[in-house]
Amino acid sequence: LRLVLMGPPGAGKGTQAPKIKETYNVCHLATGDMLREEVKKGSELGKEAKKIMDNGGLVSDEIVIGMIGSQLENNPECQLGFILDGFPRNVTQAEKLDEMLAKRKQPLEHAVQLLVNDNLLVSRITGRLIHPASGRSYHKEFAPPKKPMTDDVTGEPLIQRSDDTAETLWKRLETYHKQTDPVADYYKKKGIWTGVDAAQSPKTVWASLSKIFEESK
Ligand code: AP5
Ligand code: ZN
Predict the structure, then answer these.
(1) Pocket of ligand 1, candidates 20, 124, 163: which has the most ligand atoms within 8 Å of its Cβ, to mutate?
(2) Which strand (E) or helix (H) includes residue 39?
(3) 173 vs 50: CA distance, rounded Å
(4) Which has more pLDDT, 40 or 135?
(5) Is 106 annotated as a binding residue?
(6) DSSP 46-109
(7) pLDDT score of 134
(8) For the segment 15-74, what is each residue's pLDDT rounded down to a tens digit?
(9) Is the ipTM above a cut-off of 0.85?
(10) 3 state DSSP class of 129
(11) Pocket probe mutation, ligand 1, options 58, 167, 197, max atoms within 8 Å of Cβ
């Protein structure tokens, strides 16, 4: 399976991707997670990226394209395919991705866009809790951990992302509509785009996704 999973902030990309990964034995490459790793390490790139992320903008194409390219090249988990989560985010990134995949003779099979109305996303984003080490996400209301603020698996504390404020969310959404909506059109023209109603429960969204992948087998 070679998949681009698109959708606005809080659409459920990070919630659905682990299920797809497990089912299809592919790697899950999330540029946002990779950038947050850099922030945690305190690298120069991390420091630069944090400012941009907390302001809802996009980190430079060169950096994110480089990160994806090197994972596709070197990560053994990507041998049977991949899920790209949060990449590409503009048409330049989409074109570069096509070039990289053409060289490997492994073109994209699906670009699936999780569709949710902007106003539904506020509560999802402001209630999100994250286990930083694994990337597991919970929600205060919609998917609460067994013990408050504690990861179910490791017992470690959960945190909120620094860009998960209502104010930054509006900027992220504005960036999404300006830069990433055209990526959906790009994939529609190529005939590999499918939209999924992601306002439904995670279980229902997963059912719609697996149907798309099964039907095209
Ligand atoms: P990134 O990490 O990609 O953030 P995002 O796109 O804003 O998406 P989120 O991670 O917020 O949402 P999600 O869809 O994964 O939602 P989740 O499943 O967690 O990027 C962050 C930043 O990095 C960007 O702003 C940019 O600055 C930079 N960046 C990243 N990639 C880049 C690139 N390619 N180029 C340039 N810059 C880049 O769900 C959210 C919450 O809702 C959770 O609490 C969950 O439990 C809950 N939930 C999920 N599904 C449901 C449901 N069906 N019903 C109810 N609740 C649900
Ligand atoms: Zn995510």
Answers:
(1) 124
(2) helix 31-41
(3) 17
(4) 40
(5) no
(6) HHHHHHHHHTT----HHHHHHHHHHHHHH-GGGTT-EEEES---SHHHHHHHHHHHHHTT----
(7) 85
(8) 999 999 999 999 999 999 999 999 999 999 999 999 999 999 999 999 999 999 999 999
(9) yes
(10) strand
(11) 58
